[in-house]
Design a protein that fits this description.
Elements: H1 4-13, E1 22-27, E2 36-38, H2 41-48, E3 53-59, E4 62-67, E5 72-76, E6 81-84, E7 94-100, E8 107-111, E9 117-121, H3 123-129, H4 144-151, H5 158-162, H6 173-182, H7 196-215, E10 258-263, E11 266-271
Parallel strand pairs: 2-9
Antiparallel strand pairs: 1-7, 3-4, 4-5, 5-9, 6-8, 7-8, 10-11
Helix pairs in contact: 1-7, 4-7, 6-7
The structure holds zinc ion.
Amino acid sequence: MPELPEVETMRRGILAVEGATITAAEKVKCRRKPITISPGMSTIRRRLVGKKVKQVGRIGKRVFLQMENNDRLLFEPRMTGLVLVADPPSQQHVRFRLEFSHGEKEVLYWDRRGLGMIYLLNDQQYQDRFSLKNLGPDALEVTGKLLKEIFGKSKRPVKVALLDQKKVAGIGNLYASEILFVAAIHPAKQCNRITMSQWDLIAETTIEILQTAIEHEGSTLSDGTYRNALNDPGGYQNMHRVYDKEGETCPICMDSVISRIVQAQRSTFFCKSCQKRS
Ligand SMILES: [Zn+2]
């Protein structure tokens, strides 16, 4: 957490700064574990203040501000980071702020655990860092053919494979369980045993679930951490079918209960009846 739908919601929440000029950049004094900000603040100020934001973008699970010279300031929320335009959930976890010309609200970066990162890259650094060697295609743009090309020869369990950001960007632990449940694929099924029509189904389901989750502004779990840019909770948690529902009746077969297994140290939720292994 947050995954593609939550980060895309953050991006949409700060779109108003497109076309505005940055007038101040400040690392906010915070007594918690400091987040990584690179390069140093004096360099960040020199390269950003007085510059106009050309575009607010997203790459995988990161939001960025792209300047006219294609410098990009990236916000990588990792576990508990938020990009906000409204009052933050708590003042003591605000880490960074930007001010803008002509009255747009400021943009804040908030992070309770402080595992997130903020970094400025020039265009070449950005292209190198996010080349297809380092980051897979965006999950909203996958096709069955593409997934088969990427994963078709792998013996990894499909749930674990879908989390690999070098292969496909944006899917995390929550949405992987939801996608495989709706596609009726067992999460431990080896990728090389998945048929072309099943890859088609996984691709279609991925896009449909992620888009619906974006429409509902992401999932705010019981810890309440994830908020949109206005510090409001998302709504997709009310539509989860299996995630964190161990022991509840399956919403499809209405017979089996949702099971939990651990794969690569992460919980996976699924229905043994609806998601057969063979
Ligand atoms: Zn079921």
